[in-house]
Amino acid sequence: MLSINQIHHTYLTRTSANTVLEDISLFIEEGEFISFLGPSGCGKTTLLSIVAGLIEPTEGNVTIHNKPIKDVRTQIGYMLQHDYLFPWKTIKENVLMGLKIMNKRSDEAEQEALALLRMMDLGDVEEMYPRQLSGGMRQRVALVRTLATNPSILLLDEPFSALDFQTKLKLEDLVSSTLKDFHKTALLVTHDIGESIAMSDHIFLFAPNPGRIANIFTVPEELRTLSPLEVRQHHRYNELFQDIWKELDSLGKNEY
């Protein structure tokens, strides 16, 4: 479904050239959940921005269903660390904003979006404002707003990192089950080894200077059928965690 072909990216200034990505190629099947894992500065978010069509790579290309990104941007949903809800608009208005911007708003699409809001246990907050909700609730609203446009692929840039640990675990479960129910393809950028194991089918481990794929870890099939919380309690989780930790250590990254 998603093809990333020999991506190379260099940031240029008047006095320097900083290569942040080098020879990145990978393929993602429809319905897969993929994680980009690695330390700060390894180019994960830059690559996500290229996939989103926000940055034009120096070399290489990205396609979805064999079509260039510039032709299919409306098929991409983006969920960030911050919810970026409009504080002066109600939750209902925020949820419907994506439909309005993409000119996809209709009675049917609006009803489906509001039904999704209720599915997230947020049906009673439609007329509230973002300041009246907790951080976890706001991120759920952001997820509904993203899914309301029915994207083919979701790009998740550390969407849980600003939350407390308990809320983070609950949202991991909710997002994972929702994406499976809707058979969505997802790409997660994270620094968190545990999060990548708990949510992913495959983990692409990035090395820095310049950013490149150092290794690919496949999450065992027996873990993929479990919820993220259940995965964290499984003995295979600890085995894979240690394998990834050792690989990161061999790359000289001590912040983990």
From TrEMBL:
<dbReference type="InterPro" id="IPR050166">
    <property type="entry name" value="ABC_transporter_ATP-bind"/>
</dbReference>
<feature type="domain" description="ABC transporter">
    <location>
        <begin position="2"/>
        <end position="233"/>
    </location>
</feature>
<dbReference type="InterPro" id="IPR027417">
    <property type="entry name" value="P-loop_NTPase"/>
</dbReference>
<keyword id="KW-0813">Transport</keyword>
<dbReference type="InterPro" id="IPR003439">
    <property type="entry name" value="ABC_transporter-like_ATP-bd"/>
</dbReference>
<dbReference type="Pfam" id="PF00005">
    <property type="entry name" value="ABC_tran"/>
</dbReference>
<dbReference type="GO" id="GO:0016887">
    <property type="term" value="F:ATP hydrolysis activity"/>
</dbReference>
<keyword id="KW-0067">ATP-binding</keyword>
<keyword id="KW-0547">Nucleotide-binding</keyword>
<dbReference type="InterPro" id="IPR003593">
    <property type="entry name" value="AAA+_ATPase"/>
</dbReference>
<protein>
    <submittedName>
        <fullName>Spermidine/putrescine ABC transporter ATP-binding protein</fullName>
    </submittedName>
</protein>
<dbReference type="GO" id="GO:0005524">
    <property type="term" value="F:ATP binding"/>
</dbReference>
<dbReference type="InterPro" id="IPR017871">
    <property type="entry name" value="ABC_transporter-like_CS"/>
</dbReference>
